[in-house]
Task: structure prediction
Amino acid sequence: MSELKKDVVEFLKALADQTRLDILDLLYNEKKTSSEIQLVLNKSQSTISQHLKVLTNMAFIIFERINNTKYYEIKNREIFKLLIDIKSFVDAINKERLKTMSNEDIIDTLL
Result:
């Protein structure tokens, strides 16, 4: 596999997790600490830490240390445009699939 394909696979893997998507959503408007994220998502500290590490390693988020507290924020807001485009694409696929299934059901009913 080419290096480019490996990078794309790792990029998509990082986005293919509900908790990481939830974290990105939480950081959409403001910086948050891991404790704040943990409280909102009702997940353990270790779980949130693991997901923050993945998001940081992929450069989706960055952190600023103030005193002994890390404040996480989105590094590049273009990630949200990409997520919206992915959602639109998935919605279009699902609509087409539903239409196909409905047409097949109609044909099955008639036959």
The domain at 1-75 is CATH 1.10.10.10 (Arc Repressor Mutant, subunit A). The helical segments are 3-15, 18-26, 34-41, 45-57, 78-110. Strands lie at 61-66, 69-74.
